[in-house]
Amino acid sequence: MTDQTPAPYTGSQRVLSGVQPSGALHLGNYLGALVKFARLQHEIETFIFVADLHAITAWQEPAKLADQVREIAAAYLASGLDPAKATIFPQSAVGAHAELAWVLNCVARLGWLDRMTQFKEKSGQHKERASVGLYTYPVLQAADILIYKATQVPVGEDQRQHLELTRDIAQKFNHDFGAENFFPLPEALTQGPGARVMSLRDGSAKMSKSDPSDNSRLNLLDGVDAIAQKIRKAKTDAAPLPETIHELADRPEALNLVGIYAALEDRTPAEVLVEFAGQGFGAFKPKLADLAAARLGPVGDEMRRLLGDPAEIDRVLAAGAERARAAAEPTLAEVKQLVGFWGPGR
């Protein structure tokens, strides 16, 4: 019997996040996640995965799933993630995620999961027909974070509840197995300006890849002409732009376009209004279209180049998976020791 004690959390900082390969990425993903991942890699040890285990909580065509993973990886790379700085990998290539998720399923409590609002929203009126995976999705999210002992997680408002669950699970595991501070309690990294990009057709709805109208979003693979056309058709109102953000409170479509312009230029909406106050959308939209094309056009071009050479993407993902496994496996081994699973010398 070994008396080796698993190492507690040592205080090193790590950030982790991921995107599901379940549809085309759009401007909201780019501003709310991808460019921020690229920025974080210069500030903190960064793990960014393609969440293919999460994706299959809803049906995915098996013949297409691997290519969907490559498309997300291409978007990461085209948006500035550097595989020499950030660990980029497919979630399913690191078995420790699923192994830890099972242990954490035995730590989490039904009452905790029953309070998760996203399951209620996604299952709707047909809860009994939803997959068990969709119900336990937040526990797998906790495993994604805790297997790397990540300390910070970029989250939007719709994921804050899941991060709180991760903290509860980590705290209960530490308490139950007498391992104070073994898992850190991860903190939320707020997304900041541009995080919540709304639909181009409805300023009260978040831009979404599941919206049936392609004109509701700017896809990363849209060409320059498509970007200009979608912005030209974006819903607005007849009033000119005001001088203050407060005056846009009841004009959601106008507020959205001003926010998009500000995020693309890394300015505040107030600064944008100083430039365009008093002007109508006939003047503003062409400027926004030019700006969006200038920012997104090169991203789309690089994605198309990468997708034309899937072997290059596969090399990045394979190397990232190897690095991720090397980081995850010691934590999993320590968890197994704490839980009391059989192992040589125990």
Question: How are the elements arranged and paired?
Answer:
Blueprint: E1 14-19, H1 27-40, E2 45-50, H2 52-55, H3 62-78, E3 86-90, H4 96-105, H5 110-114, H6 117-123, H7 132-146, E4 152-155, H8 160-176, E5 187-190, H9 224-233, H10 252-265, H11 269-276, H12 281-307, H13 310-339
Parallel strand pairs: 1-2, 2-3, 4-5
Helix pairs in contact: 3-12, 4-7, 4-13, 7-8, 9-12, 10-11, 10-12
Short précis:
It is built from 13 helices and five strands. The chain has 346 residues and is mainly alpha-helical.
How would you sum up this structure, described in words?
Helix 3 packs across helix 12 (281-307) and helix 7 crosses helix 8. The termini are close together. It is built from 13 helices and five strands. It has helices at residues 27-40, 52-55, 62-78, 96-105, 110-114, 117-123, 132-146, 160-176, 224-233, 252-265, 269-276, 281-307, 310-339; strands at residues 14-19, 45-50, 86-90, 152-155, 187-190. Helix content is 51%, strand content 7%. It is mainly α and 346 residues long.
Main-sheet strand order equals 1-2-3
The total count of strands amounts to: 5
**Mind describing the biggest β-sheet?**
3 strands, parallel
Q: Uncertain regions: pLDDT < 50 for 5+ in a row? A: 1-6
